[in-house]
Amino acid sequence: MSKTVRLDKFLADAGKGTRSEVKKYIQKGLAEINGQTVKKPEQKVGPEDRVLFKGEEIAREPEHVYYLLHKPAGYVSATEDKRDRTVMELIPSARKGLFPAGRLDKDTEGLLLITDDGALAHELLSPARHVEKTYFVRTEGQVTEEDKERLEQGIDIGEKRQTLPAKVKLLEKEDISEEGVMRHVRPETLPEVYTELLLTISEGKFHQVKRMMEAVGKPVIYLKRISMGPLTLPEDLKKGECRLLTEEEIRKLKDAGRTSDEKSEKC
Ligand code: URA
């Protein structure tokens, strides 16, 4: 929710003139708040107030923006980098404070949230929240039922604790065309034996998916995130493209960032 600001600042920020110019316009009676002419530049404008200037409604800048990016391989999940291209180069906005909420490895593709809402990003990435992330994974070798069980139970990847239980769906080679968001061309050069699967984890340890698959001896050769909490990579969003989240997606995302205690308080 945007903060309350003075009317002269509100209009100056909206590009209606310098602060001293808009003060004069206001004193001449050119501004209205909620249908009432206001002549005091210091009058407060709240988030719900409707402001007209010279009879035209002033559109508000949203407090935060949320982009869903289809990250291609070759970009690092950072705001700046000396060597590599960053995901920020794919965002058509010069808005200050934007950053990737979480990280995908340089060679990982898929869904990445870019926002300037630090509080929400913090909540979504907090280990306490257990926000689920699903990856389409292609590995070398045949992932067996026993591997699947080990991944599902939690596995040692060299951290203090084992990973939390994961969800695993081994895909038949024909499944790919049915799984809309994962539809993609298989590269021409593939190992003789490989496995494709969906892996859902609710943590975000460094290189977690790759380390989990290493732990069962099936190294990852391709990785793509297809969902994060309530967000799914849209089928029509091409690699390198992004779009703003809808109001509904933002609401669901904020809900995913809240603890179950906070959720029950709301009810
Ligand atoms: N796990 C990984 O190993 N890499 C990623 O980019 C994301 C999850």
Which features characterize this protein?
267 residues; four-stranded antiparallel beta sheet; Alpha-Beta Plaits; nine-stranded mixed beta sheet; Structural Genomics Hypothetical 15.5 Kd Protein In mrcA-pckA Intergenic Region, Chain A; binds uracil; 8 helices; elongated; 17 strands; alpha+beta
Structure write-up:
- The chain is α+β, with helices and mostly antiparallel strands and 267 residues long.
- It has eight helices and 17 strands.
- It folds into three domains: 53 residues, Structural Genomics Hypothetical 15.5 Kd Protein In mrcA-pckA Intergenic Region, Chain A; 95 residues, Alpha-Beta Plaits (2-Layer Sandwich), CATH 3.30.70.580; 97 residues, 2-Layer Sandwich (Alpha-Beta Plaits), CATH 3.30.70.
- The protein is 24% helix and 26% strand.
- The strands form four sheets. Strands 7, 10, 11, 12, 13, 14, 15, 16 and 17 form a nine-stranded mixed β-sheet that branches. A four-stranded antiparallel β-sheet has the order 3-2-5-6, with no helix packed on it. A two-stranded antiparallel ribbon has the order 1-4.
- Strand 2 and strand 3 form a beta hairpin.
- Helix 1 packs across helix 2 and helix 3 crosses helix 7.
- The two termini are 20 Å apart.
- The mean pLDDT is 90.
- Uracil (URA) binds next to helix 6.
- The site of uracil (URA) has 8 residues, from helix 6.
